[in-house]
Amino acid sequence: MITYSSIAEKSSSNSSSNVVVVIVVVVVVVVVVVVVVVVVVVVVVVVEKVVVVAVKAVLTILVTRSSSSSSSSSRKVVVVVLVVVVVVVVVVVVVVVTIVEVEVLEVVAIATELAVVIVAIVVVAAAIVVVVIVLVIIVVIVVVVVAAVVALIVVVVVVVVVVVVVVVVVVVVVVVAAAAVV
């Protein structure tokens, strides 16, 4: 049989499991972003080292060849090697940046959606808290008003009883006095 308490237990367990799911997804997104950033940094550092080493090697070869007054064909080979290295590095950088950019955009989109969901949950929770506070204030006001009305009724009843007693006493005194006079 379904009761209100079982429904409340199910809804509270669903909301707590939803919070756990949101926390897990946020942690996963943060881990993915950190991994992507680390991969990008490592790739950029490696590419930079390769370019520096290649340029140093080419410059060393050029300086060595020019000082030993070698033929122009060896210089052409060095220039071709330098151009090939630069082209390969540029292609690798473009490919890595394109892949990382797509992954980063996906992660940013997921993180944005999660942020919107979290903000919506916080706003709804705040609205629920405000509604509960307003309801508590209304209940307190109603209780105070009812207590004041009950106190007023008690005071009126006491005053009426006192007036009736006084009137009865006065009537009795008058009757007794009249009887004594007669």
UniProtKB/TrEMBL annotation:
Keyword Transmembrane helix in annotation: yes
Chain segments annotated as transmembrane: 20-44, 50-66, 78-102, 114-145, 152-181
Keyword terms, alphabetized: Membrane, Transmembrane, Transmembrane helix
Domain of life from the UniProt record: Eukaryota
Stated name of the protein: ABC transmembrane type-1 domain-containing protein
Upper lineage: Eukaryota, Metazoa, Spiralia, Lophotrochozoa, Mollusca
